[in-house]
Design a protein that fits this description.
By secondary structure, the chain is of the alpha+beta class. It folds into two domains: 70 residues, SH3 type barrels (Roll), CATH 2.30.30.30; 54 residues, no CATH class. It is 28% helix and 28% strand. It is built from three helices and eight strands. Strands 4-3-2-1-5 form a five-stranded antiparallel beta sheet. Strands 7-6-8 form a three-stranded mixed beta sheet. A hairpin with a 2-residue loop joins strand 6 and strand 7.
Length: 137
């Protein structure tokens, strides 16, 4: 994006990229440490400069810039797989119920920081998120 966007442009971006929207990175050109092609993430918020801040499945928290970076919005009706990322390990689930059972079992079997990481994923699953991380950014 060249220059500072108008308030109307930022508002349009906020409507397009609502919190929780799932995005797939196609090509990131705006960063020296780009998000890898194909990486999924969830929109956190759009700032006043028009950057879309994301929580990526690889655990990174980084914005993309509409117009410079190429992304794809994943429509809700095509999002059937749930992705969990815990201790840097990405796992794809066909069933939210199975993912929840697995992480609830891990919560019950652990304690301390390890339990907290599993609990973060479990809570994200309860909230209906499609990309659920342990919060270790």
């Amino acid at each position: 994006m060249k220059g500072f966007p108008t308030p109307a442009h930022v508002e349009a971006l906020r409507k397009r990229y609502r919190k929780g929207t799932t995005i797939r990175m196609i090509a990131m050109k705006s960063s020296v440490l780009p998000i890898a092609e194909g990486t999924l993430g969830e929109v956190d918020y759009v700032d006043d400069a028009g950057e879309v801040h994301m929580k990526w499945e690889d655990g990174r928290v980084a914005p993309f810039i509409p117009g410079e970076d190429i992304v794809e919005i994943i429509p809700k009706k095509t999002r059937q797989e749930i992705v969990t990322v815990c201790y840097g390990q990405r796992e794809t689930w066909k069933s939210r119920k199975k993912a929840m059972a697995s992480f609830l079992e891990a919560v019950a079997a652990t304690e301390g920081h390890e339990q907290e990481r599993y609990m973060n994923v479990y809570i994200a699953l309860l909230e209906g998120k499609m990309v659920c991380t342990d919060g270790d950014d």
